[in-house]
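Troubleshooting log. The previous structure file for this entry was overwritten by mistake, so regenerating from the original sequence record. Sequence copied from the archived sheet and checked twice against the printout by T.R.
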Amino acid sequence: MTQVPFESLPQRVFLDSSTLQMLQDYGGQVWENEPIQDKDRIHSIPDGPATIDALRRIFFVNQRALWQFALSDNSLREVAAKGDAWYLQWAYDVLDHWQICLEESGPPSSKGQAIGAMLMTTSFNYLGEGDRSLLLDAVTLECDAFLTCDRKLAKNSHHLLAELAILVVTPIQHWQMLEPWARLYV
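Regenerated output below.
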C-alpha cells in the first residue's frame, strides 16, 4: 500500500458490525493488550491475530488522535439480531459516544437518498441488504472510511471508493495507512 498523505487519513470511520463484534469479543486484547490464548478460534481465521493487533494499534493511537468512530440504527439492528444482551448493551454505549460526537460536529448532509438509489442498482448486486444499509449510513454520516473485518467486502473497495467516495478497509489495511503517521500521536 502506498503511503497516504497525512491530510487524507480518515477522520470519521464507520464500524461495520463485523468490526464491532471483533472489538467486543477481543476487547481485552485490543484495549488491555492481553495475550490471545493459544487455542482461541481467532487463530483459525486468516489474519485473525493480525486483525486484533491492528485494532489494538489503531485504538491506541486514537487515544490521542481522537478520530470519530460511527455506528447507526442499522448497526444496532444487526447487533440485536445476534441475541446477545451484553453485546447489544456495549453497542448502545458505543452509539451513545458516537451521537455525542455527531452533536458536536453538526448534522450530516442530505446526500443519502441519491446514494441509496445508487446502491440498489445491479452494479452493487454483490452486496447483501445489510451491507447496503450500513454503507448508506456511512456515506450519509459523511464517514471517510468503512472499517470491516469482512474480507469479501473489502475486496470491493476500489469499486466502492469510485462509486460512493468511501474507503472500505480491513483493520490491517487501516493500520497500514496510519502506521507511518502513528508517532505523531504517541
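The radius of gyration is 16 Å. Archived copy saved in two places this time.
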